[in-house]
Amino acid sequence: MTTVKILSGGAAQGLVRGLTDALKARTGFGISGEFGAVGLMADKLRAGTPADLVILTQALLAELAEEKLVVPSSITDVGRVETALAVRSRDPEVMVKTEADLREVLRSADAIYVPDTKASTAGQHVAKVLNQLGIAYEVASRLKIFPNGATAMRELANSTATRPIGCTQATEIIATDGIALSAALPPGCELVTMYTAGVTARAAHPKEAAALVSLLTGADRKELRQRVGFAR
């Protein structure tokens, strides 16, 4: 089957999967590509990896349009995603209302599962928050860092630690079996990221890629976006 090739942040994986049948019905095309840390996905496009569509942060899409790698007129916001805390489904949820609460939760965890702290949106934010809370050095040995949030959450689900916790984007938490979205990050530590889609300048199938953008952002898919963790 011919496919629309995408390079996407992991935050959009659950949404894209939920639209596979709809795209096939509309265009006859399937979906293929890669999901991962947004910085790495942008660099893959810059390096010439074939792609018809990218779904990355709003800021990265603006950069790629400036670099003439994405068609500016095609850029459309998909929705906002919170960075949040996750626990294994069998563990009690954590209560986090303040920075002090978050500091205590992270200090008491014996394993902290996070995505790439240099290339992923959520991972970069976790590193920033740990410094802000003054506990980066204290918890460094307990950080379990993985290439992207989806992998980090799968590892959390299988963790044998006594009190593990995870932190990544809500969409990646919701999409992972065996874990639960436990709490949003408190005021002063929160992060809400706008994800945006755009057809690439070298797209082999620009019409079909535009059809996928329409599905991703259409008003009739609002319930699906909310269910997988997006908010407008």
Question: In words, what does this structure look like?
Answer:
With 232 residues, the protein is an alpha/beta fold. The chain folds into 2 domains: 3-80 and 193-228, D-Maltodextrin-Binding Protein, domain 2 (3-Layer(aba) Sandwich); 81-184, D-Maltodextrin-Binding Protein, domain 2 (3-Layer(aba) Sandwich), CATH 3.40.190. It has helices at 13-17, 20-27, 38-46, 58-66, 99-108, 121-133, 136-139, 149-157, 170-174, 206-217, 222-228, and strands at 3-9, 30-36, 53-57, 76-88, 111-115, 143-146, 164-169, 179-184, 192-199. α2 (20-27) crosses α10 (206-217). The chain is elongated and about 50 Å long. It starts with a strand and ends with a helix. The relative contact order is 0.24.
Per DSSP, the total helix count is 11
Helix percent reads 25-40%
Using only C-alpha atoms, the radius of gyration works out to 18 Å
What's the total number of strands? 9
The largest β sheet comes out as: 9 strands, mixed
What is the CATH C level class of the largest domain, in words? Alpha Beta
Instruction: Please tell me the total number of domains.
Output: 2
DSSP strand content: 25-35%
CATH fold call of the largest domain = D-Maltodextrin-Binding Protein, domain 2
Low-confidence stretches: none
CATH architecture of the largest domain: 3-Layer(aba) Sandwich
Mean pLDDT: 95
How would you classify the helix and strand content by structural class?
alpha/beta
